[in-house]
Write a structure and sequence with these properties.
The chain has 758 residues and is mainly β. Helices cover 5% and strands 53% of the residues. The protein is built from 3 helices and 44 strands. β25 and β26 (421-441) form a beta hairpin. It is globular, with a radius of gyration of 26 Å. The model is unreliable at 1-6, 29-35 and 115-123 (pLDDT under 50).
């Protein structure tokens, strides 16, 4: 156990709390199962010769919001209602059916195709990543099957098979992964949890590890500016994470993971119906890594040691009067230690005996959502969202001490209805965002309070299925930046039933957290210098403001009875102001200042998905970036970013439920920050080499309940040579672990077990 300021005792208390919660829950869970009755069934397509299951059919009690959808075998399970016995079964392209349920416990329903044809063969295999041709906002829906193609231990590791998101390490010591979209750092992407702000502020980088992969039901990913309903901060895109919820999750889901580097994880998702209209979910995660590795011989750990515990409890209430209410709480506890192999925090902290770092994080969150649908006017509804969090980080990196606290509050009141008919819809509402920061870097204090009240309206126009437009405008007032407006527009035009063109444009504004978003720089001897104007604005710097424009062409096709799609998009981001992190002026400094000159990002991506043969999915993509910023009066490429990337993913599943996944990434060269002022032995080439990364995974499923999986990350064992500069002199002015352009660790073999109880 790693101890800082008596935290061993805190960790022990937290373990006891988790154990008590688990025992209490299991007792109530078993009791609840005796009181609740369920209706099980199967929905199929009516056919003369064969029974075909219908996947994703809607099954719900009439005039209520209590329902479910059928699984891959057409099966469903739904709790019975004492007040309603009329069950509705519907699916697009089929005639809906209403069945009166009396005492039966199992129901078999065969839907009839709504269009009678002489000879029709219907086959459909749901893609692991779905793209709608009807949504005006180009959105990729990443489902559970896509996430299972890789180990996916947390959100930062959930994009290994997605070419739209780049994942890299912030430095060679802390083991922190960061994401990038459109060539821009992760904080420029708005990350929400079920359309509520989630990872931002002090958690902008580390927060990706606070969401275990087994908790994720799906991820909605869109490039460019998002909806004004979700706020003003989105610049590069939005990642909306949907977590397991009581209405659709399995009763029990267990996952055990381990790898050769000593990382062990245990995840448990538990669901229970507490009465006919109330559901509860308990999500648990624990991780421990205590194995020391130094395969490159630089006397530094290849990955940090530590432990992590995350607990989430959520409740959902359904009401036959159109009311939907949910509430949740979440707690996160993390301890990480890294640095030189012989570093002992009890003796070496704050000294030059041995270089080390520790990061201790405690975060507590709570949220609630209330929605009311007008039963007589189902297009009209009102919703209220509220959330709050307290985040505490105590850390040091060598001789750099960084302690920070954040208390945050968010609320959003939303009303939606129509104008005359459903071709003209609108959403409007008011929001409030509050952040109180206490930041201390060595002796420099960066305390501040930010609050932003705002209002928004968004209009949606639909012309049949041919054309759609979403036009939004919001106005906000920041207590330090003043008033500002955020316009956004999304357009969609259907060339034909298989081809869609989309265009988007809009403005984004965000308040940068320059220390927490660049903590990799703290794991270096660089002096952090902030060239602010001395005002009350955060760090004395202006807000980051950018305009984003994008075009997308999506074409879906069927070739030899198998589906495929092609997607081509181009996005440009123009910064009106940006907080520049300058590592080029002086190798011993990291300077932060307001942009003076140009800063832009051009992003082009082409992707092709197709089922080559039955159950063999093929995905290939190419991505090109042109990202430049003005550093000290000179327009330069963004450092440590590849301009070119190619991607291939193959996924095959046998009839016996063996699954084989293979992914190969090629990344082009990356510019290294200017180190010419250093002595020759502490200089690097202007550009890094290009390289390949390969990942493979094999899994076997039994009755869709029990899975075994094993895989290898970085199959070729490719590593950046000497990722830590001056590792033999960690307290010298040349020490730097933040110049990371490639993999820090080598080949990683992992294995795991999953179990589901539906």
């Amino acid at each position: 156990m790693l101890c800082i300021y008596g935290r061993c005792r805190k960790a022990l208390i937290m373990r006891k709390i988790v154990l008590i919660v688990l025992l209490t829950f299991f007792i109530n869970f078993l009791r609840a199962q005796q009181e609740i009755t369920y209706l099980k069934g199967k929905v199929t397509e009516q056919s003369e010769n064969i029974e075909l299951p219908i996947i994703g059919a809607n099954v719900y009690w009439s005039n209520t919001t209590v329902g479910t959808t059928t699984d891959v075998n057409g099966n469903f399970k739904l709790s019975k209602l004492n007040t309603n016995n009329q069950l509705v079964i519907s699916y697009v392209g089929y005639r809906s059916d209403t069945v009166v349920i009396n005492n039966q416990d199992f129901l078999s329903v065969a839907l009839v195709n709504s269009i009678d044809l002489n000879e029709v063969t219907v086959t459909y295999r749901r893609n692991t990543t779905e793209v709608s041709l009807l949504n005006p906002i180009y959105t990729k829906v990443v489902g559970e099957k896509e996430l299972l193609k890789a180990a996916c231990c947390n959100l930062s590791e959930s994009f290994e098979t997605n070419p739209s998101v780049d994942v890299s390490f912030t430095d060679a010591i802390t083991g922190t992964r960061q994401i990038q979209m459109l060539g821009l750092a992760g904080p420029y992407t708005q990350i929400t949890r079920e359309n509520m702000p989630d990872i931002r502020g002090l958690s902008a980088v580390y927060g990706l590890t606070y969401i275990p992969g087994t908790w994720i039901e799906s991820i909605y990913l869109n490039k460019g500016t998002g909806s004004v309903v979700n706020g003003f901060e989105s610049i590069a895109g939005q990642i909306d994470v949907n977590l397991r919820n009581p209405a659709s999750m399995d009763e029990l889901y267990l996952n055990v993971y381990g790898n050769q580097k000593g990382r062990i994880e245990l995840n448990a998702n538990i669901q229970a119906d507490v009465g006919n209209k109330l559901g509860m979910a308990l999500l648990l995660h624990g991780m421990n890594n205590s194995l020391k590795d130094d395969h490159n011989g630089d006397n530094f750990l290849d990955h940090p040691l530590g432990e992590q515990y995350v607990l989430l409890n959520r409740w959902e209430l359904y009401n036959d009067k159109g009311i939907h209410f949910q509430v949740g709480v979440k707690g996160t506890y993390i301890d990480k230690t890294g640095g030189e192999i012989d570093f002992d925090p009890d003796f070496d902290k704050g000294t030059t005996n041995s270089w080390g770092m520790e990061i201790h994080t405690e975060r507590y969150e709570g949220w609630a959502k209330l929605g009311k649908v007008n039963i007589e006017k189902p297009w009209q509804s009102v919703g209220f969202q509220i959330s709050g969090a307290t985040h505490k980080q105590v850390s040091y990196f060598g001789l750099n001490n960084y302690n920070a606290n954040q208390n945050t509050f968010y609320s959003n009141l939303l009303f939606q209805s129509i104008i005359k008919d459903t071709n003209h819809k609108f959403k409007t509402g008011i929001s409030f965002q509050y952040d109180d920061y206490k930041e201390l870097l060595n002796s420099d204090n960066f305390d501040r309070t930010e609050y932003v009240p705002g209002a928004f309206i968004e209009y949606t126009y639909n012309h049949l299925e041919k054309f759609n437009a979403i036009v939004g405008l919001r106005g906000d007032y920041h207590n330090e930046y003043g008033a500002f407006v955020t316009p956004r527009v999304h357009l969609r035009y259907s060339i034909n039933d298989k081809t869609t063109v989309r265009a988007s444009g809009g403005r984004g504004l965000r308040s940068a957290n320059i220390i927490s978003e660049n903590t990799g720089i703290l794991a270096a001897s660089r002096q952090l210098i902030v060239n602010g104007d001395g005002s009350n604005k955060p760090y004395g710097l202006d807000p980051e403001i950018a305009w984003n424009y994008g075009l997308n062409l999506t074409y879906k096709f069927t070739l030899d009875y198998r589906n495929g799609f092609v997607s081509i998009d181009f996005y440009r981001t123009d910064f009106k102001n940006q907080i520049v992190a300058d590592l080029d002026q002086n190798p011993q400094q990291a300077l932060f200042y307001n942009l003076e000159g140009e800063s832009y990002s051009n992003s082009f991506q082409a992707q092709f998905d197709y089922e080559l043969i039955n159950r063999l999915d093929f995905r290939i993509a190419y991505r090109w970036y042109d990202v430049k910023t003005t550093y000290n009066g000179e327009l330069k490429e963004k450092p440590l970013l590849s301009n070119h990337r190619a991607f291939i993913n193959l996924a095959y599943e046998t009839k016996m439920h063996w699954k084989f996944d293979y992914t190969v990434n090629w990344q082009g060269k990356k510019r290294i920050p200017d180190l010419s002022a250093n002595p020759v032995e502490y200089q690097l080439n202007e550009y890094s080499p290009d390289f390949f990364l390969m990942n493979v995974q094999i899994s076997k499923s039994w009755q869709l309940k029990f899975d075994l999986y094993a895989g290898v990350e970085n199959l070729l064992n490719y590593k950046q040579k000497d990722p830590i500069m001056a590792s033999d002199q960690p307290f010298s002015q040349y020490f730097d672990s933040s110049l990371i352009w490639g993999p820090v660790t080598g080949r990683n073999i992992y294995f795991g077990v999953r179990y589901k109880l539906k």
